[in-house]
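Loading example: each entry is read as three labelled lines plus one structure line.
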Amino acid sequence: MIQALAFYLFAAVTVASGVMVISSRNPVHSVLFLILAFFNAAALFVLLGAEFLAMILIVVYVGAVAVLFLFVVMMLDINFVELRQGFARYLPIGAAIGLVLLAEIFLAVGAWTVIPVTADSSITPIPPMNEVTNTHALGALIYTHYVYLFQTAGLILLVAMIGAIVLTLRSRSDVKRQSVDEQNARRPEDVVEVVKVGRGGGV
Amino acid sequence: MSAIDPYILSGVIIVAQILAIVVPLLVAVAYLTYAERKVIGAIQLRKGPNVVGPFGLLQPFADGIKLLAKETILPAGANKLIFILAPMLTFILSLIAWAVIPFDDGMVLADINVGVLYLFAISSLGVYGVIMAGWASNSKYAFLGALRSAAQMVSYEVSLGFVIISVLLCVGSLNLSDIVMAQKTVWFAIPLFPMFVVFFISVLAETNRAPFDLPEGESELVAGYFVEYSSMSFALFFLGEYANMILMSAITAVLFLGGWLPPIDIAPLNWIPGPIWFFLKIAFVLFFFLWVRATMPRYRYDQLMRLGWKVFLPLSLFWVVLTAGVLVTFGLVPA
Amino acid sequence: MNAVTSLPVMMPASAEIFLAIAGMVLLMIGVFRGESSLRFLSYATIATFAVAAILVVTQGGGGEAFYGLFVSEGFAQFAKILILIGSAFAVLLSRDYLVREQAGRFEFPILILFATLGMLMMVSANDLMSLYMSLELQSLSLYVMASIRRDTLKATEAGLKYFVLGALSSGMLLYGCSMIYGFAGTTSFTGLAAVFAAQTGVVPLGLVIGIVFLIAGLAFKVSAVPFHMWTPDVYEGAPTPVTALFAVAPKIAALALFVRAMMDPFADLIGSWQQVLVFVSIASMGLGALGALVQTNIKRLMAYSSIGHMGYLLVGIAAGNQAGVTGVMLYLATYIFMNVGTFAMILAMRRDGRLVEEIGDLAGLSKTHPMMALALMIFMFSMAGIPPLAGFFGKWYVFMAAVDAGLFGLAVIGILTSVIGAFYYLRIIKIMYFDEATQPLDDAVSQDLRVILYGSAVVTVLFVLFISPVYDAAKVAAISLVGA
């Protein structure tokens, strides 16, 4: 009973905060609601027994991605009133597409028949959850059977990194940079001179 | 009625357990501030607080009552809701992480499989309290402090993660009790000594402590992200920051210093109960926090970023590979 | 759970593994040697493609690798060779441009290399997951390349448009994949084919919706109508050598992936997807022909031309038989040379050292540069499908396959649209030969461009001599995928 209650609570908050993300006036509030939605999604994962995914969702999305969102939203002074001007004009077409997608989900779920060949194999997780923690199970799969996808994901991230550098890095020549090696290599005898100043003479 | 009874009972037990952790923690926070002033005083050849109560022992309470009695000021241009939410968030986050910390064999509130990840997740959320406070204050200093802090915490989290991974490689589990038990023969601080150092320094950056206290650098930013806060809302930040220090020391103790285990498992040492050992180790790490604060000058911002990205990140990445390589080569991979 | 300790089968993927490692090595060289290494990296990239091509050819019968996520057979080999040729040309075309426009960045050839790696992996994808991952690897590299001239407004606009719409299409693709997975319980192509072969009775509606979304995502990548909107803007905005790459290699990869997705896992559901492809194909042929009529910018014209070509190629997939696949592969082989040659010509269009790209700038080319005008005329005739030239054969085999499959209407519409399309190709020839030049184009054309321009013109003309070996190779490739 508690499980069901918890599910409905988390699910309701997720949906509600999802709605708030797109409807709240202040973009910072939108991001904060997004974070709330992530949290509740993580809680739903916990209810499913997918504790590893729940934690990773928080570490990656809340701890890193949403921080960047918040950063950007706070630093850019976006005039959202201006941005929303086309909103009413595009609302009908957007709503129409949304409705079509929704209708398709209903159609798909309504006509849900898992093909019998695989129906029985897809119900129980392999290996059973009480024998192996899901961290172990995921690790044993990702690094063996799905190593190809894992490496491809690595390459995609590499390309993303190259892209970010290519598109944004500007090497500025007018900036003074610290060279730690140079500083460490400096010796007192090279740069300090001890002078005996005579009385009334000055240096 | 009887169907609900077990829920009520277990609820009461959980609340009691939570109080058993939180109340001593708050007292510890209060006396950490006292210890800080005493230690720094000693290092700087001063006496530190010695007026309120015997040896100044009541000083923290005097400070607390003073803060409570003051007026809470809400700046006119502030975003009220977030402004109030931010200190609460910081404080709550510093408390909820304690749920998974094992004080002794089996003496833990929630013995979950992914304890380390939970701690990592909670510590990565700490940045929100800071940025929310900085932004909601609607003040230049606060915002600059918040930006600095966010960039700093996100940067050091990366190497922190790799350090944790190299520990996990040696344990083969994400459960904190398992991590402690894996150190029965030798504490990880010895074979993974470089990682221990990297971890400790990253923790300093993560908790915004000296020498990485740029977010609140008083000489340039007045007090950084909490410059607009006063009275109780300020006190929550303050409590949160110190509770975080204790938490991070506890994590250091669990990951590297063998948690509740005695240094050597022999007669007089293993008579002392585990929680005492754990407390001593936390105190030991905390002393380092204070020692560093009293002796190190503050880093410049570019130096801070350089250290994080160009020194710690490659080093910890290399160490992860090395650890994995050594474990595989010598057949030490935990089952 | 017993751990898998042995290494997976990797040999069929040797070309991809080599490309990935070579890419990282070249990246390191570039990082440490700086911008001055551009020239070296360009040639090294081409050499890498050559080695990869050798590995592709010598991998023998191929087979599955990485626990069935990757597959290589005659079909994949044929497509991979075409992709490597297309990418190598793109690197060659870009070198002169990068130096002249001072846009030289050493990352450029490396991004081409990673994009090519993504394309090869697309061709060999044997699982919905590897399909998606390889598609993203390729697309992400291309997004960056579209806006590599980050200081020009048009290039950034092109990159942003491409990225946003590409992300949308990836979303649709994933939505479709998740629906297919939900119904079949497997993502592996082999598994899906087995499931659908055993499936009897009415195809579930949700599965059909899933397939339609998958097709929509793939149609976006090949820029088929109604998912073509990005094409003219991106073609026009991106730097010309990048456009030359966009027009050739990714199209081949996406089409090969399209062919595999339709013919391998969903072969038994042809009734569900054939009408969709027929519609997309007719719309692309029609819009490609009509849209090109009003263009004045030659890159936009090439965009509409490629939309039209995709329409013809989709005719071959819609046919759904071995003849159709053969036709598609043969068409792609001819498509490379016509397009690379045309883009070499566009890159050679300079006036006072600056690139021009209006069709009107070609006026009087026959008098100032008779050889170049002749070459461009050959490409235009070939694209229009005039008989002895290469372009004709592709269309011929594709339409024959459609007739074989009983899609007479589709074949007739295809022929009608190629007649309309011929008009705008002929318009270019008319401008070159009969209009008066206002101001001639520059004489200095780099050696690289000349070689590519005339070389591909010769190939296009003489293709008729090699038609039977190429046809046989394409047929072997098709048989390896769909059976005789």
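The longest helix of chain A spans residues 51-75.
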